[in-house]
Amino acid sequence: NLLFFTDRGKVYHLRGFDGPDAKKEAKGKPIINLIELDGGETVTAILPVKDYDRDFILLATRKGEIKKTLLKEFEEVRRNGKIAMNLEDGDQLIGARIAQNDSHVLLVSNKGQAIRFKIDDLRQASRTSGGVRGMRLPPDGFVVGVETIEDGDQMLAITEMGFGKRTRLSEYPLQGRGGQGVKTLNITDKTADVAACHIVQPGQKLMLVSRDGIVILTNVDSISVLGRNTQGVTVMRVSPGDQVASIAAFTMQDEGPNRAERREAELDANRAQPNGHADIPLNETMPLDLEAV
After folding, report:
1. Nearest residue to 228 (alpha-carbon basis) of 140, 62, 115
2. Which of 91, 145, 226, 241 matches a 20 to 30 Å C-alpha distance to 8?
3. Nearest to 142 by CA among 84, 209, 95, 101
4. Tell me: the pLDDT tens digits for 124-161?
5. DSSP β-bridge partners for residue 61
6. With the CA atoms of 218, 262, 23 and 273 taken in that order, what torsion angle do they form, in degrees rounded to the nearest 10?
7. What pLDDT score does 195 carry?
């Protein structure tokens, strides 16, 4: 099961096998053909769910509010969606995470601040209720990411101009919710604001996507581990007028002893297609087909 959360605080449901299966360079199917979004509504988070009988969902907003709701309350979702969080005027839902009470949560702002606090500090709220203040923001600040964290993880932050770094979670002190947090990245004119963040582990792959549809795939291990008060290194070079839009970290599945043979067959099949793309090497880019549908 897939739960789709939107900027308007609604949640929609889709069975995983009902989604389209396509190659990475394909433009896919418009999401509005899969779930009944309202006009102008945008999906901001997607969560895969197997078991609704345990855990919570954490929901965070652009203005720094957060709430914790039992996952069980999202088991029955109509095709046209239902309310996941009551938002204040002008606010938007920006993220959703599966969480447990004994974990911690990290909120990150566009101005390079981050705050870590206990999930158990949050009261359990109903699905239709609003949230509480998770992070205090400056007038020009907004939350760009919410992550649940475990010991041994690392926090990866990427700026709009493609600068990034990993930072050990041990450098983030445990605080009470509602504060300004601590610096997680040194913002400069060269880096621009923080665009996205993600909890990563050594050995994972990282995919970055720009607003113009350029995709880069790289190794998490190739990105420097630096302290909080640094600006990072160049992870993705963006063209003038473009900027990093989103990132995703994942672990590649082991393809077994015949991996090389299968990969070569896939490459040959791609080369045989008139408009096909061979799989992109690490750190090389490939444009997505963003033609309007």
Report:
1. 115
2. 241
3. 95
4. 999 999 999 999 999 999 999 999 998 788 999 999 99
5. 93
6. 110
7. 96
